[in-house]
Amino acid sequence: MTTEADHLQVLLVDDDLDVLAANARFLRVNEISVVLAESVSTALQRLTENEIDVIVTDLRMPEANGLAFAEQARASRPLIPIVFFSGFAQVPDVVAAMKLGAVEFLEKPVDPDELLRVVRSVRRTHYGTLANQRQVFDGGGESFSLKMRVLAYEKYVIESSLLQHNGHVADVLNALQINRRTLNDKMSKLGIKRDTLIEQRAGSNNEQES
Amino acid sequence: MTTEADHLQVLLVDDDLDVLAANARFLRVNEISVVLAESVSTALQRLTENEIDVIVTDLRMPEANGLAFAEQARASRPLIPIVFFSGFAQVPDVVAAMKLGAVEFLEKPVDPDELLRVVRSVRRTHYGTLANQRQVFDGGGESFSLKMRVLAYEKYVIESSLLQHNGHVADVLNALQINRRTLNDKMSKLGIKRDTLIEQRAGSNNEQES
DNA sequence: GATATATCGGCAAATTCTTGCCTACCAACA
DNA sequence: TGTTGGTAGGCAAGAATTTGCCGATATATC
Question: Which of A3, A149, B116, B136 could form a disulfide with B152 if both were Cys (CB 3.0 to 4.6 A apart)?
Fold first, then answer.
């Protein structure tokens, strides 16, 4: 289960093949695997074939626009993070995209470093080894009490934040705007062990960048 | 208190007094009560004095911009729906606003009918769709405090349960294993209005879509 | 009208959570 | 060895939440 825990797979959708190839190359150089799609229909197909973690899509495409694609994508992957990019974006487009739950909206031409930053931050925020807990508070759990679901969610947020900040507690304090003493208490109550979390992450991540 | 159950109160913030007055007049004609503020500090003041349901604010203002205002406003009203408007909005502004949990982002000059529609829809859909709230507690919100994210999640769970049980509070109590008094308090604090929630759901069944 | 059912709010006691202060531990390093 | 930076836990006061009890209101039903 943890064999490919940190292996991030991006679905990159763009009808402009040159841009598509360039962005893909850049991401791959930075150790992110990329699945390509040059149309909405292909993208939907790829989405079912691969274990996609993030969708990065152009907003304007000939066949159907990115918003429509995002809606269809969400049908099968309700919580998948989606990053849009577009040139000449109108405000209503951006608003619509964000309402659809877009994680970011980048302007074309996309700055590769920015793209990389966003994709990586998505990884840290949304995924991790946390998929299990997620199920408790996400959708399904009709049978759990409110308190339990809230606790599960709280745990998820804290663990995410810890991972995101490499176990650096001071940063978590700042990001979550919480008192240190309170965070310590919560972690202890929720059974979050900073060291274990980081070890795991380091272990599955024999390659490191920081 | 309950005499004005469906009575919607809007806090309208704009440093341009002419626009402010014009919009206020239009909203009032349409049976929406309006509280005015021409600066951020005034707005924060008004927010504490009145029972505001929605904030409609300009993004660009001399004293402090709308985003900063929104952040401060959320300190006292964590989940209050905020509508931004602005001329010359840049994509990053819009993205930032939406990430902050904005309900809508309108372009200046604001079409009065559009404004009315948005304000009313806020009432109708009661602080946005569930999917929208999801965005707050799900991935997007790196910038939200733990407390805020937990509240958003709690709200989402409660609203879901209410809808699922047709507004039958007793069933929700049972499903969520929570004390009635506690649920009532939470609903009031989170701005969940059972009646509105159910009305809207009933309305959307036979009525048009939007 | 009565009566039953379901919801909501005020109040206060009991409980839990939050936070500041102080101490302690550990690792890096001068 | 001593200092610095980052983290964790004990403790107690202060703040907030939870909950039981009471009554109020609204809508059906008899």
Answer: B136
**The residue count for chain A:** 210
In this complex, do A94 and B99 lie within 8 Å of one another by their Cβ atoms?
no
Tokens coding B190:
């989170």
- Do the chains contact at B105 and A91, CB–CB below 8 Å? yes
Task: Report, at the CATH architecture level, how domain B2-124 is classified.
Answer: 3-Layer(aba) Sandwich (3.40)
Whether residue B44 lies within 8 A of chain A, CB to CB, comes out as no
Q: What is the pLDDT of residues B19-57, one digit of tens each?
A: 999 999 999 998 888 999 998 888 887 877 776 778 899
Per-residue pLDDT of A111-124, as tens digits, reads 999 999 888 776 55
pLDDT along chain A (210 residues), means of 10: 53 92 92 90 85 87 82 68 86 84 84 88 48 47 74 84 84 89 90 74 42
Distances (CA, A) of A101 to A71, A148, B137: 10, 25, 11
Question: How far away is chain A from the Cα of B3, in angstroms, using its nearest Cα?
Answer: 31
Q: What residue of B is the nearest CA neighbor of A87?
A: B91
Residue A75 vs residues A55, A65, B135: alpha-carbon distances, Å:
14, 16, 16
- Provide the token pair at B3: 């005499």
pTM value is 0.63
Count other Cβ atoms within 10 Å, centred on residue A161.
23
B135 touching A, CB under 8 A? yes
**Domain layout of chain A by residue ranges:** 9-126, 131-204
* Contact check, Cβ <8 Å, B150/A153: yes
Where are the strands (E) in chain A, listed by range? 9-13, 33-37, 54-58, 82-86, 102-107
Where is B103: in which H helix or E strand?
A: strand B102-107
Instruction: Enumerate residues 6+ apart whose C-beta is below 8 A from B120.
Output: B8, B32
Cis ω before B109 (30° cut-off from 0) = yes
Provide, in whole angstroms, the distance separating residue B148's CA from nucleotide C10's C1'.
Answer: 27
Per-residue pLDDT reduced to its tens digit, B44-90: 878 777 767 788 999 988 767 888 888 777 666 655 778 999 988 88
Given this model, what pLDDT does residue A142 score?
A: 52
